[in-house]
UniProtKB/TrEMBL annotation:
One of its GO terms (molecular function) is ATP hydrolysis activity. It comes from the Bacteria. Residues 2-245 form the ABC transporter domain. GO terms for cellular component: plasma membrane. CDD domains: ABC_Mj1267_LivG_branched. The keyword Transport applies. The lineage of its organism: Bacteria, Bacillati, Actinomycetota, Actinomycetes, Micromonosporales. This is ABC transporter ATP-binding protein. InterPro entries: AAA+_ATPase, ABC_AA/LPS_Transport, ABC_transporter-like_ATP-bd, ABC_transporter-like_CS, BCA_ABC_TP_C, P-loop_NTPase. SMART domains: AAA. Keywords: ATP-binding, Nucleotide-binding, Transport.
Length: 247
């Protein structure tokens, strides 16, 4: 589905992302781990088009998307959440999701068409909120949500774009320990239907181990390993890379 081929991003002589080869199957959940500064976010930036690779390619269903800007990649089904929150705090939860659905679908100028479209947008927004367990929060101001709920809203915003591949960048960041299990359930449900694939960067190893079919380990920009959780955890090179950090 999504694949990177020798994907590299250099700043001067330094390879921030170094010849990374990843192949994500339909419906697969791939966790990305690595010490701070390993290049995980930079890899996401290259895949989504926020940064242009200096070498290598990104393909989606075999199509080379390396030269496309982010919005074109998104339209082809590549969706991403960010570490920094992208929610409009002064709008309600439902309004946030409606805007995202509208942005994805585009508007129609014909009045008779507008009314039907508005109903469709509202239905799609409510469905996305339901998917992430925020249906009861529709009228709440987004800025007042707790971290865990804000993360759920960000996932709903992402779902509004109907992505086939979702990139989640540290979805557990700032989430209190008691909210983690529910958020894990929401994230698990993302790959359950429709063959949607997920690529997730996360520092919480327990979360990665619970969700990932395979784990990619990055270190100094390169892919150290990409295998089943059991194989990766038993890999001495991976353990060495994490020396001093708990795996
Ligand atoms: N625009 C930039 N200019 C210069 N250096 C950069 C730039 N972006 C990232 N880097 C460097 O590239 C390296 C990888 O950064 P990146 O944010 O991709 O790592 P990461 O694995 O996501 O780290 P973390 O787990 O801390 O989020 C870091 O050393 C960082 O300082």
């Amino acid at each position: 589905m999504l694949a990177t081929h020798g994907l590299t991003w250099r700043i001067g002589e330094v390879a921030i992302v170094d010849s990374v080869e990843i192949d994500l199957a339909p419906g697969e959940f791939l966790g990305v781990i690595g010490p701070n500064g390993a290049g995980k976010t930079s890899l996401f930036n290259l895949i989504t088009g926020l940064r242009r690779a200096t070498e290598g390619r990104v393909t989606l269903d075999g199509q080379d998307i390396s030269a496309l800007p982010p919005y074109r990649r998104a339209r082809l089904g590549l969706g991403r959440t960010f570490q920094a929150s992208s929610v409009f705090g002064s709008l309600s939860v439902r309004e946030n999701v409606r805007l995202a659905v509208q942005a994805h679908r585009g508007g129609s100028m014909k009045l008779w068409r507008r009314a039907a479209a508005d109903r469709e947008v509202a239905a799609a927004a409510d469905a996305a909120l339901h998917r992430v367990g925020l249906a009861h929060r529709g009228t709440t101001l987004a800025g007042t949500l707790a971290h865990g709920e804000k993360r759920k809203l960000e996932i709903a915003l992402l779902l509004a774009g109907e992505p086939r591949v979702m990139l989640l960048d540290e979805p557990m960041a700032g989430v209190s320990a008691e909210d983690v299990p529910e958020l894990v359930q929401v994230i698990r449900s993302l790959t359950g239907d429709s063959g949607r694939s997920v690529l997730m960067v996360e520092h919480h190893m327990d979360v990665i181990l619970e969700l990932a079919d395979r784990i990619a380990v990055m270190h100094h920009g390169a892919l150290l390993a990409c295998d089943t959780p059991e194989t990766v955890m038993a890999n001495p090179t991976v353990q060495e890379a994490y020396l001093g950090e708990s795996l």
